[in-house]
Design a protein that fits this description.
Layout (H helix, E strand, L loop, with lengths): L10 H19 L3 E4 L17 E6 L4 H10 L3 E4 L1 H4 L5 E6 L3 E6 L9 H10 L2 E5 L2 E5 L2 H12 L5 H10 L3 H14 L2 H8 L11 H9 L3 H11 L3 H10 L5 H8 L5 H24 L2 H6 L2
Parallel strand pairs: 2-5
Antiparallel strand pairs: 1-2, 3-4, 4-5, 6-7
Helix pairs in contact: 1-2, 5-6, 5-7, 5-8, 8-9, 9-10, 10-11
């Protein structure tokens, strides 16, 4: 009997098979991949059922380009690029018709040692994990906890992840996490998650983590991004990008590729939006304005 009925695959199942499919590609080309966050996290660090709607991986920086080429050939298409995906330019998002969304990280926000050094440190203590019958690799338990806390600094499920990975953890676990934070030079972002950010007011990325962890206007975020740049050249590049329209975000908002005139309209709307944000900031109570300085 013929039927046009569709069977909905549970999200948890799709994520496991999505990780397996990605790992098969990585194994074929010899790319080093660490599965992170969501259903890849150790059960002891998860509050209940695995969360998340996409697959997150951290890739050895030297292998990013070849993995990018390989997954595009196999049906993953770019959804948002490194340049416009986040304030850090750390991840590129892909979409596959069967496996859903994939976030490919070339580094992890909050870690300030060079990306290749950071990856090698995490890779050294990797563990094996099973994803729908395919063996993949995940960071060690302390590293998983550290990444979850750093992720929480950006407001991503901060309460649950922070409790299991840090505030309610054993003393031995916290010592291991602190040692890894030292090795990765991740003190500022870690402090933003754990409430000690004011100890790092003199650090170049202090303002950026304050905006990300406590909230702020888009203008404040861009200014913080400029100030957090590791070099004058990078600061100039960030400043030059600030007035430009994020075409990828606009396309996501519209659900289609924007027309030329829609891009032009968005470009001229940006100064007006910045002015409105500034006016709202000036009308805010003094204690709120002090918080965002």
């Amino acid at each position: 009997m013929e039927s046009n009925a569709e069977v909905q695959v549970p999200l948890a199942v799709r994520l496991r098979f999505g990780r397996a499919a990605l790992q098969v590609v990585a194994d074929e080309i010899g790319a080093d991949v660490l599965h992170i966050k969501g259903d890849a996290a150790d059960p002891s660090l998860r509050p209940g059922e695995p969360s998340g709607t996409d697959v997150d991986i951290l890739v050895r920086p030297a292998h990013v380009a070849m993995l990018d080429r390989a997954i595009r050939v196999r049906g993953w298409r770019v959804y948002s690029t490194f340049v416009y995906g986040s304030p850090f330019g750390h991840a590129q998002t892909y979409l596959h018709d069967a496996w859903g969304y994939l976030d490919l990280h070339r580094w992890f926000p909050g870690i300030r040692v060079p990306p290749d050094v950071a990856f090698e440190r995490l890779w050294a203590n990797r563990q094996m994990a099973d994803f729908a019958g395919i063996e993949g690799r995940v960071p060690g338990l302390a590293a998983q906890a550290t990444l979850l806390v750093l992720n929480a600094a950006r407001g991503a499920r901060s309460g649950a992840d922070l409790a299991l990975s840090w505030t309610e953890a054993s003393a031995e676990h916290r010592i291991e996490v602190e040692r890894l934070v030292d090795d990765l030079d991740a003190h500022v972002a870690f402090a933003a998650a754990t409430g000690d950010l004011e100890l790092y007011r003199e650090e170049r990325d202090y303002r950026l983590w304050k905006v990300l962890s406590e909230g702020g206007t888009r203008s404040e975020e861009w200014w913080a991004r400029v100030r957090s740049a590791p070099s004058i050249g990078e600061a100039v590049r960030i400043a030059a990008r600030a007035p430009l329209v994020n075409v990828e975000h606009l396309a996501i908002k519209l659900g289609r590729a924007p027309t030329r005139w829609e891009v032009v309209a968005a470009f001229f709307a940006r100064p007006l939006r910045a002015a409105v944000e500034a006016a709202d900031w000036l009308r805010a109570p003094r204690h709120r304005r002090r918080r965002t300085r």
